[in-house]
Amino acid sequence: MARRADALGLIAAAAFFVAPALVAAPAAHANIYLFGVRCNDEAYVAQWDSGAPDPGKEYFRLATGDLNLDCTIHDYDNKTERDLPRRWCREAGGILRGFPPMLIILGTTHCH
């Protein structure tokens, strides 16, 4: 009986230390994607923090271009763009996501 109690105590202690690592694991694998955005009247760096699952760099490059139709989107260059303002981006949801030009008409953006 004492062995069983010791075994249960050991399992509970192991679960106490392992559970936080399992919960935090997806956040540890998140990637940060940076893109330079140059328009006629402004330039900035778009930053995307991927979640799990990560759709990949090309997905975020296309998402950045969805609302910046008259702008050039390119990979971030730390040497030339480190002083540009940075905007944190998120995806638009709902019906607006299916029709990105509507976001332009409404004056909303996914990068703030």
List the helices and strands and how they pair.
Elements: H1 2-28, E1 32-38, E2 43-49, H2 57-66, E3 72-75, H3 78-81, E4 86-89, H4 94-97, H5 100-106
Parallel strand pairs: 2-4
Antiparallel strand pairs: 1-2, 1-3
What does this structure look like?
The chain has helices at residues 2-28, 57-66, 78-81, 94-97, 100-106, and strands spanning 32-38, 43-49, 72-75, 86-89. The model has no long low-confidence stretch (mean pLDDT 73). Helix content is 46%, strand content 20%. It folds into two domains: 1-29; 32-106, no CATH class. The longest helix has 27 residues, at 2-28. It is an alpha+beta fold and 112 residues long.
Overall average pLDDT: 73
Helix content, binned percent: 40-55%
- Strand-and-helix sequence, N→C? HEEHEHEHH
Write down the overall geometry: elongated
What is the domain tally? Answer: 2
Separation of the first and last Cα atoms: 61 Å
Poorly predicted segments: none
**Count of DSSP H/I helices:** 5
- Computed over alpha carbons, the radius of gyration is 22 Å
Strand order of the largest sheet: 3-1-2-4
Number of strands: 4
Question: In percent, how much strand structure appears in the residues?
Answer: 15-25%
Describe the largest sheet.
4 strands, mixed
Helix/strand structural class: alpha+beta
